[in-house]
Amino acid sequence: xRIKTILSFAVVLxxxxxxxxxxxxxxxxxxxxxxxxxxxxxxYDSTLVGYALIKNGYYQAYLANVGPNNTRVNERCFSCSNSxxxxxxxxxxxxxxxxxxxxxAVEMANHPGTPGNSIPGIGSYNDLYVVTTNGxxxxxxxxxxxxxxxxxxxxxxxxxxxxxxxxxMTDAVNGADCVLPIGxxxxxxxxxxxxxxxxxxxxxxxxxxxxxxxxxxxxxxxxPYGWSPNGSKIIFASDYNQxxxxxxxxxxxxxxxxxxxxxTTTGGSVGWPYCExxxxxxxxxxxxxxxxxxxxxxxxxxxxxxxxxxxxxSSQQRLTYFNDTLSSxxxxxxxxxxxxxxxxxxxxxxxxxxxPQPVQLDSAALNKSFVYIITLDSLATVEEKNAGMNKSECxxxxxxxxxxxxxLVKNNTGKIEYSVFNILGKKISNGDFSGEILDVNxxxxxxxxxxxxxxxGKTVVNKxxxxxxx
Length: 470
Hints:
Immunoglobulin-like; 2 domains; four-stranded antiparallel sheet; 3 helices
């Protein structure tokens, strides 16, 4: 009887594990940077990423390149030596899709309250700035008040680089709304702001025609995460039609604030589960978001994980298992996942995995916060699996480049032809090389965006890079 019981248990366990394995998506998980947050991936360079790290007591914006096997290469602080910034906390960078600027939310030099309320993600007494990609010129875009209700979070560029969107605080925090399902202002009231980004080459860029969108027309927590890839919709989280903030859901709406569609679904009287931090794949096919759905199911111990759905809200499934004790990447503590950003080819994303509490609520949690790169293996393209160059193992760095651009084609054993084109499509350099490494002298190039074409006769790989001038 004992043997039969053991065998029966083993059979049941085997099938449970097979079911669990079948349900989990095919992904690869890489820990890219410790003690970091506010990560982003450049839309014009598949190897360039950014995030925020603490230096000398304040957050600073860093850039790095993604090397072979998702290793971190050429990490550098972008904002540390910028004397045109106020000298306080700077958010992680938001990349201009045209390669002209980096966009930041930046803490004011002087304001009431503590610096902890002005860090990225809380945004009290912040203004918006853009800095040219070479770091030489800095422009302040907003002049928020340094008293009263004043906060900015989640700035983003439109896909064509002609508009900027952000969330701006409109109503004070109501602590009672955090403990009872009676109101929507646990995090305060926030509106969506959209402005034209005017790139004045004489006087510097500025914002114009600022408009305000308040979904549902009532004070609520509204957090926009950017546009859909074609620029027709805005993706945001909100509790505007929910019982309270802990019922936050993911929505889309048109750029005038109409045609609101709820993409995720509540599951109870108080709106379980909680959803935030949604971001679209550049090909427009998928949306990834953070939720505590299944947070305590099975071997999951709470916290939040990333889920993925089609852009219309269908086919929702759990993507990561950071809070599952049976997961190969369980760290021994509960995590709250944050915002992320896809690579240009939509096959990877970079994102924040926080500690048991978000860093915004517990500064000590930064020691348990990491930036990960997630590769969606099930979405790998046929071209990447065919013979010839592997697109995912071709790298260009540093990007932006000043004097020299290095091209790395991992495991290359044949001859590769290359051509470099400027933004007008004019070929300005070409040749061929053998082996893994090519160095391209760009010292004589004008500053701007360039395109690199690589061909081994079987596969063509295209890369984009920037040249900046001091």
